[in-house]
Design a protein that fits this description.
This protein is an alpha/beta fold. The chain has a single domain, classed as Rossmann fold (3-Layer(aba) Sandwich), CATH 3.40.50. The chain is built from seven helices and ten strands.
């Protein structure tokens, strides 16, 4: 997180439009800036364009028109190979369905997310262990996904996303596959990571989740219709759902419109 009085932009979208074959326009001239250290919701119903926006912000797709800059890098100027390298260094992803490899341990799942980082195997394992400690799973490192609860699986996915210390964490419906208690625990973890300095965008259709975050960017029919910064209406109680929060340590060193 920037220590400057004026945080640097992590995401800059200017006039971003995305069109698909058949005349489908998913995004229409979107302008969006996300500053270092922000925690925000990108919220909208199914078909609003929020998933397309996620893909473009995460550099998984390119816009039809407009400018996209991630961590100061103009995406249009990069080859596909350079774009993949930028994504691996600067963007972490957390998905609703976890995307864990079933036959390997939590530690191995997190370490696998660092395969293209250029780090040694020993360093990847060390960072994986540190990240799992950070999310409160220090005692579950050798457990395989089938031995973990839904909330624990999502924490493994978050550990994998933050192990490389990306500039931006994109959480796509991170509580969508969880029960209420596990969902609250995961949201508290995201709040805690943000308090530690992480820049996080949560993509959601859940109005309650959006209200719990200090910034809500609402999307409808491919356009941003509101962008509000406010104290959360229903903040998640600090560490209440996640008693291991204060024991975590910071590690030393990621279609169609929907």
């Amino acid at each position: 997180m920037s220590t400057s009085a004026h945080p640097r932009p992590v995401v800059e979208l200017t006039g971003v439009t995305k069109e698909y074959p058949g005349g489908v326009t998913a995004l229409r001239g979107v302008d969006l800036t996300v500053l270092d250290g922000e925690l925000l919701a990108l919220v909208g119903p199914s078909g609003s364009g929020k998933s397309t926006l996620l893909h473009i912000v995460g550099t998984l797709d390119r816009p039809t028109a407009g400018r996209v800059a991630i961590a100061g890098h103009d995406v249009a100027a990069l080859s596909d190979r350079a774009l993949s390298a930028l994504r691996s260094r600067h963007v972490g992803f957390v998905f609703q369905s976890f995307h864990l490899v079933p036959g390997i341990s939590a530690r191995a799942n997190v370490a696998e997310g660092l395969l293209y980082s250029g780090l040694s195997r020993a360093e990847r394992a060390r960072r994986a262990a540190t990240a799992l400690e950070r999310v409160g799973l220090g005692d579950r490192m050798e457990h395989r996904p089938h031995e973990l609860s839904g909330g624990q699986k999502q924490r493994v996915a978050i550990a994998r996303a933050v192990a490389g210390e990306p500039d931006l964490l994109l959480a796509d419906e991170p509580t969508g596959a969880l029960d209420t208690a596990s969902g609250r625990s995961v949201m508290e973890l995201l709040h805690e990571l943000n308090r530690d300095g992480a820049t996080i965008a949560v993509i959601t259709h859940d109005q309650e989740i959006a209200a719990s975050l200090p910034r809500s960017v609402r999307i409808r029919d491919g356009e941003i219709v509101s962008d509000d910064r406010h104290p959360p209406e229903h903040p998640v109680p600090h560490a209440a759902a996640h008693p291991a929060a204060h024991r975590r340590v910071r590690p030393e060193s990621p279609g169609e419109p929907s």
